[in-house]
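Retro notes
What went well: the complex prediction finally ran end to end.
Inputs used:
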Amino acid sequence: MSKWDISKISEWKSEDFPRAAVIPESGNSDDYNVGGWRSERPYRDEKVCTQCMLCWIFCPDSSVLVEDAKVVGFDFEHCKGCGICAAECPSNPKFGRKAIEMVPEGCEMPGVK
Amino acid sequence: MPKLTEIRWHARAGQGAVTAAKVVAETALQAGQYMQAMPEYGPERMGAPIKAFTRISDEPIEIHNNIEFPDVVIVLDESLLDVVDVTEGIKDGGVVIINTCSPAKAVKEALGLDDSVRVACVDASGIALDTIKRDIPNTPIVGAFTKVTGVVDVEVFKGLLAKNLSKKFGQEMIDANFTAVDRAYKEVTVA
Amino acid sequence: MVDQKTLAATGNSLVAEAIRQCNPDVIPAYPITPQTTVVEELAKFVAQGRMHAEYINVESEHSAMSASVGASAAGARVATATSSQGLALMWEELHIAAGMRLPIVMFNANRALSAPINIHCDHSDIMGARDTGWIIMFAETAQEAYDNTIMAFRIAEHPDVLLPVLTTADGFITTHSIDRAEVMDDETVAKFVGEYVPTYALLDTDNPTSHGNFAGLAGPYFEFKKQERTAIDASKPVIKQVGEEFSELTGRPFDLVETWGMEDADIAIVVIGSTAGNARHVARDLRTKGVKAGVVKVRVFRPFPAEELRTALKGVKAVAVLDRSESFGAEGGPLFLEVRSALYDLETRVPLVNYIYGLGGSDVRLELMEQVFSDLSDIASGATAPFGLTYLGTR
């Protein structure tokens, strides 16, 4: 199926829209950058992460990036900063803390403004 | 035969008046006539007085309402005579058919009817108990109706009855019903 | 014309038969008086294997219409039936079905709304659905209920339309009366209705689509409503076309507005549903006495046949519009408001009066029709028309 071209949607007339607000293709939320909605972003400490994959399971925006069955980072074009990954991330007893924490947007390290 | 015959049924819920109203209509259809049958629905329970209506005509029937001025009134339960004004609106030349063992002349006097209206009496319950072994007066009273009015043919009615009964019952029950219809046809008295 | 079988049946059983013959894939339904025998028969047909629909026992009418919406969006042909409080409970889903352009066919047994509680006929329930975007058809007889139901599938599924259709009959009066009717065989109906091929179906996994989307904020909600208006306007020629084909097939006439004696009528009644026959019966009688009486029956209420009514009523000396429902606080009943609005565009004003009648199954005695025609004769010969609406036959 060819890509649905909505580049001129602002010029469409009533009859140009697909009937009844149907979206005639799947997965096009990929085209919509919602990264700017974040006030906080997830920070993952790789050495604390046990690769339990809970963050990947729970992320409502499929924004936990995985390669070769391992979490490698976040898709910040689609992560809205909801914090579910950090909430679900289990504390690692070896370190006494979670691998994922939410940090204010614009920061890389916890505690740094 | 008049162009349109309007029949009003009076009974107690559970006596089969609605079914009888339908079967008479279906009998008329078998003879190629136009018909309509409807109950006056309400939140009744067994034993409550109810009404049902049948219209039969040689031409399509356009009206959809209750029958106020019937040509024929059929009363399936004698005790209703004290409760309901069964002859209300009956047309001149009309006939009231009642399930009772009283003679027609006495009933006519009791109802205070003059000669413009005929009264036909038949012990439909008694006949039903003798033949069908249950107090189902609706089948025999239709037999009396066919004789008194001639609106539908008794043999056409019996044919339909056999067809309907054969779905659930054997020949014995069909024969008992036929006997009930024939007896009512024979025994009905008119005053 | 095809061979048809003449039988004695109730309106409800004929509607159930029509739905069976149109072979829907899914029937989500909840029973309510006086619609009950329709869904009873449909459930029986499914249980007996006489139709291959998925019958869904839902827990309310709200769920019945929700499931209908889901099944229709999935790509199924969907039929259901309801009445009165049930239709009222469906209110939000009625808008959703129309807004999502789902060709669901629903039968409504027209019945009064509570309170006080009443199970008998009037048009309060169906008139409440008049602005939901559904096409609405009325039947005078059991035969018309059967015919309308079959046509409804063709109309709903037409690519220019794709809107849900409500096909209705008067509760008890038509739904429970045994009437003489003609029915077609299954093959003929199947051929007439055809196969439903959805353009967007959720179950079409090769062409994934998303339904029921958000079109708020500055989004194109307004544009989608314009699409709905375009579709219901486009349904009118489709209804006419389907009706013509149906008439050819069955020999029974069909039009959005059906007239009797209107070629030369001085006075006329405009009416919907089973009362049309009563009005015609009285008009026929009046004709033998030299009164030029006519009857206009509105068989399709949405889309409203304004042009047809202008044509039928132009030049008539006095017209009575009979409403079997209220629009409390308005200038008249729903039909009156529509008819008066339609006639506004005529150059010569047609004197128009409104009667509210038959609420809660109040019997439509012939003398009531006689009274209306008598009032109309007075108005036609110069009497002042009563201002406002008249309650016909109340104590």
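What we learned: The CA atoms of residues 5 and 56 of chain B lie 5 Å apart.
What to try next: split runs per interface for comparison.
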